[in-house]
Design goal:
three-stranded antiparallel beta sheet, seven-stranded antiparallel beta sheet, disordered C terminus, 386 residues, 2 domains, alpha+beta, 16 helices
Length: 386
Amino acid sequence: MQMRIRAALFFLLLIPFLGLAEIPRVSLLTCGSGDELYSTFGHSGVRIKHNATNYDVVYGYGTFDFNQPNFYLKFCQGKLMYYLSVASFDRFMAEYSYFKRNVDEQILDLDSIQTYQVIDFLENNLKGDAKYYKYDFFFDNCSTRIRDIIEIEYDEEWSKDIEDRSYRDLLDEKTIPMVWSDFGIDIVIGAIADRSYDFRTQMFLPDYLKNQFGTARISGKPLVKEERVLLRFAEENALRSQTPFITPFKVFALILLVSFMLFLANKTWSNQALSMFSFVWVLAMVVCFLIISFLWFFTDHLATKANWNILWMSPLFLFILLQFRRYTKGKAKLLVPLLVIACNVISIIGWSIIPQSFHLAFLPMMLINIVVSLHFIRLGRTISLV
């Protein structure tokens, strides 16, 4: 397959010398959301088509190989190498048709020199080490790489009239129906996601790259000369836009209500039930803390740095977990649950001050932390601060 594509490309590059009038056509392909989390934000590709030679391929950044050594470890550490791949247009469309994902095409208005500059750039990116790069969701992905081609090759004019919003706001747009994915993202993504984007950085999302291409100008003329819909799945799009009834906020609000009622009951059976729940809850907080710490301090992911969720998903829960049996017997010292309460109260009070947006479901979770901590304090025979 690769040999056939390269042979066709070689002939394509000879076209100007052979006197053939028609030049290849360069297009931006923008693919819609899918059903899986990795496909939620869409995809971008570059199509090169030449009718005279039946050359029709799609170049796509953001490809990775499952057979890489230590694949999952590298993926978690942010060290997985992604690369530029090329596939026939028919194969590309068959995949997106199978998964029922939209595909839009923007045909670029490029002259022959500009066209071959793009082709040459893409082909050079298929060679050797230039083919590989370390993926970054916000700053170096399948869309930003295509933006960079235009910026490197041409004196472009992007639209600078954009709304002042953050990266997290843009992510929320795409995850409205995927409420649990949005919840998980807000746990692991740090304060960097709350920076305001500019007209360039918003193009990390394929839809915003498409919008910018639609208004951009190069050499004084519009970058796009024609827009076409290649695939559209109205029914599937409607299903993907539906928000489920069960949301993280509702679930944790219900858990908060039940745990608070158990705390108020203050009976032997209610204290036993609350103790069992508290163990599971503290264990969950410890797991969240360990995940946040790993992604912050031991990976190359930029988006997971400076994660203020570590304030209320506190490392103090690890101490409580290790001392859990002593708490239930009223023998543990109570400074730690008091500090947990303080951290969660600070998080609630500083909700709008802390430089990171919290998911709405975090509020009942913080209140559950307080109820659990108060339960540990009440189990104690005396309140000892030393």
